[in-house]
Design brief:
20% of the residues lie in helices and 30% in strands. It has four helices and twelve strands; from the N terminus they run ββββαβαββαβαββββ. It has an eight-stranded mixed β-sheet with strand order 7-6-5-8-1-9-12-11, sandwiched between helices. The chain has a two-stranded antiparallel sheet with strand order 2-10. Strands 3-4 form a two-stranded antiparallel sheet. Pfam families: RibD_C.
């Protein structure tokens, strides 16, 4: 099975959005360079960010998100983001009325079932878990293998926490990647078991 990775851009003080779910400048690093990160060239980053991010993105088979993120993005109009094959949505509610049942989205109740579904769909590819409440629940359940953060030089002061409502310590190994880019610091940690 593929690696389960918790991932997001994050403020220096640990937030993935402000109190009103706005990411503010957290994604500015995706337009702060001269190397195209995506096929269309809408995202341009430094060479260091490209060398770190593109290989990771190419490994992602499935993304796990909460229903809140799904609703905020309007389900990406039924097309998984950034070339991901499937999206698993952790929710206690059914898909939205009129949702295309053929879209590669899977609505699952509970994080353990969501990760199991994602791993089955991903095979040996990476299962990416969005940071925040769902990511924190997956970490607390002992199902995260790796934590990746794109740390952006901004302080929010309050907002949506990277690790959600995790209320117990979890040890991470020393960082095995510390990559400075334009307006971002890429970090990668293995989760200690």
């Amino acid at each position: 099975m593929g690696t389960v990775v918790m991932y997001s851009s994050v403020s220096v003080d640990g937030f993935i959005a402000d109190d009103e779910d706005r990411p503010g400048p957290l994604f500015d690093w995706l337009s702060n360079g001269d190397v195209a990160l995506d096929d269309g060239g809408a995202l341009t980053v430094s060479q260091a960010s490209y060398d770190h991010t593109r290989p990771y993105w190419d490994q992602i088979g499935v993304t796990v998100v909460g229903r809140h993120v799904f609703d905020l993005t309007d389900g990406w109009d039924g097309t998984p983001p950034a070339g991901v094959d499937h999206v698993v949505v952790v929710t206690h509610r059914p898909p939205p009325e009129g949702w295309d049942a053929a879209a590669p989205f899977h609505f699952v109740d509970g994080v353990e079932a969501a990760v199991a579904t994602a791993q089955r769909l991903a095979g040996d590819r990476v299962v990416e878990v969005a940071a925040g409440d769902v990511g924190g629940q997956v970490l607390a359940a002992g199902l995260v293998d790796e934590v990746r953060m794109d740390v952006v030089p901004v302080v929010f002061g309050s907002g949506k926490r990277y690790f959600g409502s995790v209320d117990a310590p979890h040890l991470l190994a020393d960082p095995d990647a510390v990559i400075p880019g334009n307006r971002v610091l890429h970090l990668r940690y293995r989760v200690r078991r």
